[in-house]
Amino acid sequence: MKWKGRRQSDNVDDRRGISGGKAVIGGGVIGIIILLVNIFGGDNAKQLSPILEQLSQQQSAPTESRALTPAEVTEGEFVKTLLADNEDIWNQIFKENNLTFESPRLVLFSGQVQTACGGASSASGPFYCPSDKIIYMDMNFFEELRTKFGAKGGDFAVAYVLAHEFGHHIQTLLGTSSKMREMQEGQSEKVKNRLSVALELQADFYAGLWTHYNEKQNAMLEPGDIEEALSAANAVGDDAIQKKMQGQVVPDSFTHGTSEQRKYWFNRGFKSGDIKKGDTFAELQ
Asked: What is the distance between the alpha carbons of residues 132 and 105, in angstroms, rounded to a whole number?
C-alpha cells in the first residue's frame, strides 16, 4: 500500500511503550472463548467486559515504559495515515449525504487496556468501543492472524481491519448499532446472532467502500493489496474460526458472518462505491 507523504491523524493515542503487565489469557479455554466471540470486536466487546475486567484485575503488574523501536515508530506513522485516510473519506461521504461527521480516536496498546466498555487484552483482537467512541488495536494481533489463522498478512490487512472498526464507528454515528440492539430485544439467540452478523458484514462493506474512495483519490493500492484484505476477511469468518478452533461449524452461533460473506460484502463496497448498497440487514432477512 502506498501511504507515505499523506496526512497523519492527531487522533491517535500510542500506549505501546507503556505497559501495566501483559494479561496472559491467550492460552487455555478462556483465551479461546474471548478470541472467538470478540475478534473484530464491534459491540461484542461490551458483552465481555465483566470477564475481561476480572482478568485484567487479576493479572495486572506494575506500570513499565520503554522507547518504541524504529519499526514500531514506522508502524505508528502508517496507522496514523490510515486513520487520516478514514477520517477524510468518511468526512467527504457524510458531506455528500448532508450528515455531520465526528472522528473516533484510536488507541494503540500492548497486552491489555482499560476502556469504557471494560478491560480488554490483546486476545480480544482489534475492537471499537461505542461508549467512548475509540478504536483499540494491539498490533501483535496481525502476527496472530497470519500465523494462527492463515491470513497472508501485509500492510493492507491492517488497513482492512482498521477500516472495518472505523465502520463500527460509522454505524454508531448513523444510529445503526443502537437500532440493531433494539431489534435484538426479546428475540431468540438465533435471531440476535443473525442481526449481529448483519452489523459485522455492513462494517466489512464500509471497509470496501473506504477502499474504493481512497483508491480513487490517492491511488494507494499496490498489487496484492486486495488479496491481503480478502485473505484477512477469509481468516476471520465464523466458519473458518470454528472449524479451526473446535473442529465443527455451528451456523446458528455465527455472530460475524462466514468467510465468503465477509469477502463478498467487502468486495461489494469496493466495487460499487455506493453507500446505499450496504443494507445488509435488508438483504440477510
From this structure: 9
Residue 283, domain member (yes or no): no
pLDDT at 47 over 70: no
Report residue 57 CA to chain centroid gap: 25
- Amino acid code (one letter) for 28: G
Between vectors from CA 245 to CA 241 and to CA 247, what angle results, nearest 5°? 100
Number of domains in the chain: 1
CA-CA distance, 193 to 199, in Å (whole number)? 10
Domain ranges, residue 29:
12-275
Grouping H, G, I as helix, E, B as strand and the rest as coil, residue 234 is helix
pTM, 2 dp: 0.84
Average pLDDT for the chain:
85
In a domain, 153, yes or no: yes
Given a cut of 50, whether residue 122 has pLDDT beyond it is yes
Report the distance separating Cα 110 and Cα 73, nearest Å. Answer: 14
Query: Cell numbers 477469509 label which residue?
Result: 234
> b or e along 3-38 (b: 16 or more beta carbons within 10 Å of the residue's beta carbon)?
beebebbebbebbbeebbebbebbeeeebbebbbbb
> What are the helix (H) ranges across the chain?
28-38, 44-47, 49-58, 70-96, 141-149, 155-174, 176-184, 189-218, 225-235, 238-246, 259-272, 280-283
DSSP 8-state assignment for residue 111: S
